[in-house]
C-alpha cells in the first residue's frame, strides 16, 4: 500500500527524506510527494509517477527543511493525479499530512467540513484530516490537542504523519490498523511505514501499536494512547536486517536477486529453532481443528501446507483464503489458526486473525517482518528470517514459508505416529542438502530458463497445470507469471482440465505442465494424462521436468530440465524455476518487474 515517511533533525533533512521514500517505493508507486517546514512555512511538491521521476520533474531535493513528511501512493480514493497525491494541506497551508489506509467516514467528514466553508482540492479521504486538524487548532491553539481531536473523529484504518509550521521541528503521527514505526538516532528521528525507510541511518526502532500516537522531535519521541493520552513506555528493538540486504547488489532487479538468494533463505528457514517448530506442532496436535490461512501467494503457500499435513501427518488441515475466511471457516475456541504473511500487515489476513480471536480460538503466525501487526496480534509466532523482500512479487519469502510448514508437518507426523523417525530423518536430510542443489542449479540452468521464457511470451494465454502438491505450485507459478508479465495465465489442477477448460485448448493456448518426478508413479501418470489430452487437441505443451523423465520429454513441445532430486524437495525446485521463468518472460516483454502495474507490496486495505 502507500508508504509514509517523516524525518526531523537539526540539519536539512530533505535528501534523507527523499531517499526514505525511494526505499519505500515498493509499497506504492503511482505518485509521490514531499512536504517540509522551512522558514516558518510548509512547502509541498508532489506529482504522479515514480519517486525518481517526480524528483526530476519537481526538483524535490532542492527543497530545504529540518522536518518533513513524504509519501509514495497506491491510489484507493481518487484517481492518480497531482492533486490527489500526498501530502495534503489545510486551507492556510500551515498543516500538512500524509496517510496510509482508508478513512471510512470521510464522506460524512467532508460534508461536515464543507458546511464550515472548507474547500477541498482533492478527491481523497486523506484531505479531511488536514482540515479537521486546522479547525481544531483554530479553537485551541494547541497543536497536539488539535491533532488528537482530529484523530478521534476518524473511523477506519490509518497511519499518518503531520508537520506544521506551528511546531516547525515536530512530527505528529498516529496509528490505527496500518503500520507505523519510529526510528531513533542521535542526530535525527524518523517515522515510517516500515524500517526500510531508515535502515541506512538507524536500526533502533520503536513499534507503534494500534490506538497510539507519537510526538517526535530531533531529540525525543513520546508515545501516548489516543484514547486517554496516557504515556506508553516501550523499549526500542534492534532491527536485525541491515541496509545492505535491502540493496540490489549488482542484480538487474530485486526479483532476480531475491530468487538467487534462495539457498540462503532455505538455510535460514532450516535454522528456525526446532523449539518453535515443535511448539506449533504441539498446538496443532492439541487443537480440535487447525486452519491455514494466507492470501495471494501466501494462500498458495497454505495450500502446499495442506498437502504436507495430509501426507506427512495424516491430518486434514484446510487452507482458507484470508479474503473468504470469515464467511467460511467454522471456528471454535478449541481451534487453531495459523496465518502466513510476508509483510505481516495484509488487511485480509489480519481480519481473519481478528475473527478467529473473537471466536476464542488460538492464533499463530509465520511472518517475515519483525514487529509487524500479525506478529503482535497472534498468540505465537515463527519469524521466518528471510530478510527484506523488496520486489513487489513474493519469491524467497514464499519458499521459506513452505519449508517451515513442511518442518511443522514432519514434527506433527512424528507425534501422530503417521511417520516414523527414519522417514522423518530422511525428509530432513533431503531438506538439508537442498540449498546446495539450488545454488548449483540456478547457476547452471538460468540460460535454459531464458530460452524457454522467450518461447512462452509469444503466447497471450497460458494454463499452468499440476497435480497433488504440484497443483498449488502451479497456482503460484501462474500468479507469478501474470503479476510480472501481464499475460493471461491461469493455474489449475491438471485433473480438472477435462471437466471444462479443455474447451479453450487450441494451437494458441499454451499449457505449462509442472511434472512430478517419474518415481511418483501415480501422480506422474495422472499428469501425463493431461499432457496427452492437450496434445490430442493440438495444444502446445511446455513443461518443467526432471532429467530422468524420458516419457514426458518425448511428448512435450519444449521443456526445462531440472536435476533429479528427492520427492521431498522436488516441488520447491519447480517453484524456484517457475519464478525464474516468470522473471525472464517479463524481462523479454520489458515489464516493470520489481513494481508491476496496479500492485503494491503489502495490501493493508480491504
Ligand atoms: C505476491 O507476489 C503477491 N503480490 C501477493 O499475492 C501477496 O502474496 C499477498 O498480498 C499477501 O501478502 P503478505 O504475504 O505480505 O501477507
Could you please describe the fold and organization of this structure?
With 606 residues, this protein is of the alpha/beta class. It has three domains: 3-246, 4-Layer Sandwich (Glutamine Phosphoribosylpyrophosphate, subunit 1, domain 1), CATH 3.60.20; 248-419, Rossmann fold, CATH 3.40.50; 440-594, 3-Layer(aba) Sandwich (Rossmann fold). 38% of the residues lie in helices and 22% in strands. The chain has 18 helices and 25 strands. The strands form four sheets. An eight-stranded antiparallel β-sheet has the order 3-2-4-1-10-9-11-15, covered by helices on one side. The longest helix has 36 residues, at 421-456. It is globular, with a radius of gyration of 25 Å. The model has no long low-confidence stretch (mean pLDDT 95). The structure holds 2-deoxy-2-amino glucitol-6-phosphate. 2-deoxy-2-amino glucitol-6-phosphate binds next to helix 9.
Topology:
Layout: E1 3-9, H1 14-23, E2 31-38, E3 41-48, H2 51-58, E4 67-73, E5 88-89, E6 95-103, H3 106-115, H4 127-140, H5 143-151, E7 156-164, E8 171-176, E9 181-184, E10 188-192, E11 204-207, E12 212-216, E13 221-225, E14 231-232, E15 237-238, H6 254-260, H7 262-270, H8 274-286, E16 290-294, H9 297-313, E17 319-321, H10 325-328, E18 336-341, H11 347-358, E19 362-367, H12 373-377, E20 380-383, H13 396-416, H14 421-456, E21 461-466, H15 470-485, E22 488-493, E23 509-514, H16 521-536, E24 541-546, H17 550-555, E25 558-562, H18 570-589
Parallel strand pairs: 16-17, 16-18, 18-19, 19-20, 21-22, 21-23, 23-24, 24-25
Antiparallel strand pairs: 1-4, 1-10, 2-3, 2-4, 5-6, 6-7, 7-8, 8-12, 9-10, 9-11, 11-15, 12-13, 13-14
Helix pairs in contact: 4-5, 7-13, 7-14, 8-13, 9-13, 9-15, 13-14, 14-18, 15-18
The structure holds 2-deoxy-2-amino glucitol-6-phosphate.
The site of 2-deoxy-2-amino glucitol-6-phosphate has 16 residues, from helix 9.
Amino acid at each position: 500500500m502507500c508508504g509514509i515517511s517523516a524525518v526531523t533533525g537539526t540539519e536539512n533533512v530533505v535528501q534523507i527524506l527523499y531517499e526514505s521514500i525511494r526505499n519505500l517505493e515498493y509499497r506504492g508507486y503511482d505518485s509521490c510527494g514531499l512536504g517540509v517546514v522551512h522558514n516558518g512555512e510548509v512547502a509541498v511538491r508532489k506529482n504522479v509517477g515514480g519517486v525518481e521521476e517526480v524528483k526530476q520533474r519537481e526538483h524535490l531535493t532542492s527543497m530545504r527543511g529540518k522536518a518533513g513528511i513524504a509519501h509514495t501512493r497506491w491510489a484507493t480514493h481518487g484517481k492518480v493525479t497531482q492533486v490527489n497525491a500526498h501530502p495534503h494541506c489545510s486551507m492556510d497551508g500551515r498543516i500538512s499530512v500524509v496517510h496510509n489506509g482508508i478513512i471510512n467516514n470521510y464522506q460524512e467528514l467532508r460534508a461536515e467540513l464543507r458546511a464550515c466553508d472548507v474547500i477541498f482540492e482533492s478527491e481523497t479521504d486523506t484531505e479531511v484530516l488536514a482540515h479537521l486538524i486546522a479547525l481544531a487548532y483554530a479553537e485551541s491553539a494547541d497543536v497536539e490537542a488539535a491533532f488528537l481531536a482530529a484523530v478521534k473523529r476518524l473511523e477506519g484504518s490509518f497511519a499518518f504523519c503531520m508537520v506544521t509550521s506551528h511546531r516547525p521541528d515536530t512530527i505528529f503521527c498516529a496509528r490505527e490498523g496500518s503500520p507505523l514505526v519510529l526510528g531513533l538516532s542521535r542526530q535525527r528521528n524518523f517515522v515510517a511505514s516500515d524500517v526500510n525507510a531508515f535502515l541506512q541511518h538507524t536500526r533502533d526502532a520503536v513499534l507503534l501499536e494500534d490506538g497510539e500516537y507519537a510526538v517526535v522531535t530531533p531529540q525525543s519521541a513520546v508515545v501516548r494512547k489516543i484514547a486517554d493520552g496516557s504515556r506508553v513506555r516501550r523499549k526500542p528493538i534492534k532491527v536485525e536486517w541491515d541496509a545492505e540486504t535491502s540493496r540490489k547488489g549488482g542484480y538487474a532487479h530485486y526479483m532476480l536477486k531475491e530468487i538467487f538468494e534462495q539457498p540462503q533463505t532455505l538455510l535460514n528457514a532450516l535454522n528456525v529453532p526446532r523449539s518453535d517448530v515443535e511448539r506449533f506442532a504441539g498446538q496443532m496436535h492439541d487443537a480440535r481443528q487447525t486452519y491455514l490461512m494466507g492470501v495471494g501467494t501466501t494462500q498458495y503457500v497454505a495450500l502446499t501446507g495442506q498437502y504436507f499435513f495430509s501426507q506427512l501427518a495424516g491430518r486434514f488441515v484446510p487452507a482458507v483464503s484470508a479474503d473468504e475466511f470469515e464467511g467460511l471457516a467454522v471456528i471454535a475456541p478449541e481451534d487453531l489458526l495459523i496465518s502466513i504473511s510476508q509483510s505481516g500487515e495484509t488487511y485480509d489476513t489480519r481480519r481473519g486473525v481478528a475473527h478467529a480471536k473473537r471466536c476464542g480460538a488460538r492464533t499463530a503466525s509465520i511472518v517475515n517482518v519483525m514487529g509487524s501487526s500479525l506478529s503482535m496480534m497472534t498468540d505465537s509466532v515463527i519469524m521466518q528470517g528471510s530478510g527484506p523482500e523488496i520486489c513487489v512479487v513474493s519469491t524467497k519469502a514464499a519458499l521459506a514459508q513452505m519449508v517451515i510448514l513442511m518442518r511443522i508437518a514432519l514434527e506433527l507426523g512424528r507425534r501422530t505416529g503417521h511417520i516414523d523417525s527414519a522417514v522423518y530423518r530422511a525428509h530432513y536430510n533431503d531438506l538439508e542438502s537442498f540449498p546446495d542443489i539450488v545454488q548449483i542449479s540456478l547457476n547452471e540452468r538460468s540460460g535454459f530458463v531464458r530460452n524457454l521464457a522467450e518461447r512462452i511470451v509469444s503466447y497471450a494465454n497460458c494454463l499452468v497445470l499440476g497435480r497433488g502438491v504440484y497443483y498449488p505450485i502451479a497456482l503460484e507459478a501462474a500468479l507469478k507469471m501474470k503479476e510480472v508479465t501481464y499475460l493471461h495465465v491461469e493455474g489449475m489442477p491438471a485433473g480438472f482440465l477435462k471437466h471444462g477448460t479443455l474447451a479453450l485448448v487450441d494451437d494458441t493456448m499454451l499449457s505449462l505442465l509442472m511434472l512430478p518426478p517419474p518415481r511418483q508413479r501415480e501422480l506422474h501418470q495422472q499428469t501425463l494424462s493431461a499432457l496427452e489430452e492437450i496434445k490430442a487437441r493440438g495444444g502446445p505443451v511446455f513443461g518443467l521436468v526432471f532429467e530422468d523423465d524420458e516419457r514426458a520429454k518425448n511428448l512435450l513441445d519444449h521443456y526445462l530440465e531440472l536435476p533429479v532430486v528427492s520427492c521431498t524437495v522436488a516441488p520447491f525446485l519447480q517453484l524456484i524455476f517457475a519464478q525464474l521463468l516468470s522473471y525472464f518472460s517479463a524481462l523479454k516483454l520489458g515489464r516493470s518487474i520489481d513494481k508491476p502495474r496496479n500492485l503494491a507490496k503489502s495490501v493493508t486495505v480491504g
